[in-house]
Amino acid sequence: MEKIRKTEDEWRAILKPEEFQVLRQAGTERPFTGEYTDTKTEGVYHCRACGAELFRSQAKFESHCGWPSFYEPGESDAVILREDVSLGMRRVEVLCARCESHLGHVFHGEGYATPTDDRYCINSVSLRLEET
């Protein structure tokens, strides 16, 4: 996969302010407000910044956490995982592997009845759904 590199000014020019704040500044949208939180539409979720395929609807599940949740990415190399110790917590940040935009966080071992017991908690504003 070819990496996409842009300056922050270039990203700011192509993203809406709320997209830029989450994707490029590692922000978080308010829970239960995102367009994909409760959607059950079949399709492929792409990075809103660069268009890379990230998640498939078959891996989406209801976690009732306020953000779209997936138990695995579409391909193992679609995302990058990075330690995040911001806000006084130890978490694992999820980034798009192609453009390194912030998507959300992944949590493991919470007891969800999924094949991986992972919860990729992803901001809707970081995604664009292509219906199938």
TrEMBL record:
Pfam families, per the entry: SelR (PF01641)
Signal peptide extent: none
The EC number(s) this enzyme carries: 1.8.4.12
Protein's UniProt keywords contain Membrane: no
Catalytic activity: L-methionyl-[protein] + [thioredoxin]-disulfide + H2O = L-methionyl-(R)-S-oxide-[protein] + [thioredoxin]-dithiol
Domain MsrB: 8-132
Keywords in alphabetical order: Oxidoreductase
Coiled-coil boundaries: none
Enzyme class, first EC level, given as a word: oxidoreductase
Name of protein: peptide-methionine (R)-S-oxide reductase
Encoding gene, per UniProt annotation: msrB
